[in-house]
Design goal:
This is DyP dimeric alpha+beta barrel domain-containing protein. GO terms for molecular function: heme binding; metal ion binding; peroxidase activity. Keywords: Heme, Iron, Metal-binding, Oxidoreductase, Peroxidase. It is built from seven helices and five strands, in the order αβββααααβααβ. It is α+β, with helices and mostly antiparallel strands and about 280 residues long. It has one domain. The strands form two sheets. Strands 3-5-4 form a three-stranded antiparallel β-sheet, with no helix packed on it. A two-stranded parallel sheet has the order 1-2. It starts with about 25 loop residues before the first helix and ends with a strand.
């Protein structure tokens, strides 16, 4: 906790956040100055986090981000496999909002209608340690992993090892549909989320990131309504510099403890919206 940015301290002094987006950095800076001019001394700035889009829609670990988002009933059409939830799961004051669905519960003030709760996080990414872990362990996947007479190249084995940590290949191709080799046909909007985890051959590990954070077909243990009620609409943008050759050279000189506790200058700025 002592290393947390002041904006995330437990003092209770953080009462709000402004999110400023533009294609141009200068536009963001100008708008930030405009906001400061409007509020003047009535607010105290606790911090400023500057994100930027990297080429290829990827975060620093290399994976395409923002693929799976819920759709809201009555506010557009869901793509195949996309979770369709009641609007009140995300927007206060509508069906799906637990307060609206329970009239005897203590109601929120009227001004909260059509609002949502925002969670903002700064997720530091130890990219070099992650890359090193994959490099040291990808050989645990046998070359004949499909066990159907087809052999994987070393590069394919390395990609598959990383994909099994996340649940998708870096491109976004889901393991549940393309379990051994990266088949780019599954990037089509009608395919990329159109899957579940009912397969019997362990295509996507239980421990994979997307399987843990967004479970599918979990009955009879959890109902669809329970899972749908827990979704968030989220957005992320990378922050920090690209890794340099000099940084990689310095990393190679570190011991294990130094690598584990290394202070990383890059990561993901994450925002999530939900009514719960």
């Amino acid at each position: 906790m002592s290393e947390y940015h002041p904006a995330f301290s437990t003092s209770g002094n953080n009462h709000g956040i402004f999110i400023i987006c533009s294609k141009f950095q200068q536009s963001c800076l100008e708008e930030s100055n405009t906001i400061k001019g409007i509020f003047g001394s009535s607010i105290t700035e606790l911090g400023n986090f500057e994100g930027r889009v990297r080429s290829g829609d990827g975060e620093f670990f290399g994976w395409r981000d923002g693929i799976s988002q819920p759709a809201l009933q009555g506010l557009g059409k869901a793509c195949p496999g996309q979770r369709l939830v009641k609007p009140g799961v995300i927007i206060m004051g509508y069906p799906g909002d637990p307060v609206v669905d329970a009239p005897t519960a203590v109601q929120r003030p009227p001004w909260t209608k059509e609002g949502s709760f925002l969670v903002f996080r700064q997720l530091e990414q130890n990219v070099l340690f992650f890359e090193e872990y994959i490099e040291q362990n990808w050989r645990s996947i046998p070359a004949n992993e499909p066990r159907n007479g087809v052999y994987l190249t070393d590069e394919e084995r390395k990609k598959l090892f990383g994909a099994r940590l996340v649940g998708r290949f870096k491109s976004g191709v889901p393991l549940a549909l393309s379990p051994y080799k990266e088949d780019l046909k599954y990037l089509h909007p009608d395919q990329i989320n159109n899957f579940d985890y009912s397969e019997q051959d362990g295509r996507c590990p239980f421990s994979a990131h997307i399987r843990k954070t967004a479970p599918r077909n979990v009955g009879p243990y959890l109902t669809k309504e329970f899972v749908d009620a827990s979704v968030v609409i989220r957005a992320g943008i990378p922050y920090g510099p690209e890794i340099t050759r000099e940084e990689r050279e310095e990393w190679a000189k570190k011991n294990l403890e130094e690598k584990i506790f290394a202070k990383c200058e890059r990561g993901l700025l994450f925002a999530g919206h939900s009514v719960r």
